[in-house]
Amino acid sequence: MSQSAFIAEPFALPFDKKTTALVMIDMQRDFVEPAGFGEALGNDVSLVRVAIQPCKQVLEAARKAGLLVVHTREGHRPDLTDCPPAKLTRGGKTFIGSKGPMGRILVRGEAGHDLIPELYPIAGEPVIDKPGKGAFYQTDLHLILQNRGIKTLIVCGVTTEVCVTTTVREANDRGFECLVPADCVGSYFPEFQKASLEMIKAQGAIFGWVSNASNVIAALAA
Ligand code: TIU
């Protein structure tokens, strides 16, 4: 019997390894490394870098437990035809597609768009290129999860209040149960990190559950 439960708030979340996937959101150089898009926007990347090691431990535990692992990347075609004009005008001087220290910002194929080496996908792990903040919008993520019979998602990555919670809300509306390990998600804004995690688990798990890396690792190893 593979039914188990994650220790979580507001209450334990039962899961089955066969129907659980790890979704690693946008752990891209542009968001996490110095000199990327995140830092160019004026943010302190050390605040999101603290999530790297916990993410690495959860990723290793998920691989060992045989979970489906999916990675996402936010970015656009080099000609930016998939970038809404309204999104193109944001970010002050740091426009999507403009030249950054790690290539054109949030453009597919550029160095800064790539996933960080610490969490690099291995063979068999789908990588979803997404044009939006949510991982379901204009991608085949839902199809991939459905085809594998996935019901539960462990959602990690950056940033907590932007792409992580957008994805959790999208997933929740599609019937998935989402668990967010608090130390595996990062924000440039401590107050947003705190509020986002509180919102997820409020009102009896309105969008999902909140836990931490060690609880997830223990449950996956059981
Ligand atoms: N991946 C993601 O969260 N994209 C963002 O643009 N996040 C910010 O917090 N800016």
Automatic annotation (TrEMBL):
Domain of life the protein comes from: Bacteria
Q: Which gene encodes it?
A: rutB
Please name the source species: Amantichitinum ursilacus
Q: Where is the Isochorismatase-like domain?
A: 20-206
Question: InterPro entries this protein is in?
Answer: Isochorismatase-like_dom (IPR000868), Isochorismatase-like_hydrls (IPR050272), Isochorismatase-like_sf (IPR036380)
- Spell out the CDD domains in the cross-references: cysteine_hydrolases
Enzyme nomenclature, EC number:
3.5.1.110
Q: What name appears for this protein in its UniProt entry?
A: Peroxyureidoacrylate/ureidoacrylate amidohydrolase RutB
Q: Which GO terms describe its molecular function?
A: hydrolase activity
Which UniProt keywords are given for this protein, alphabetically ordered?
Hydrolase
List the Pfam families hit by this protein, alphabetically: Isochorismatase (PF00857)
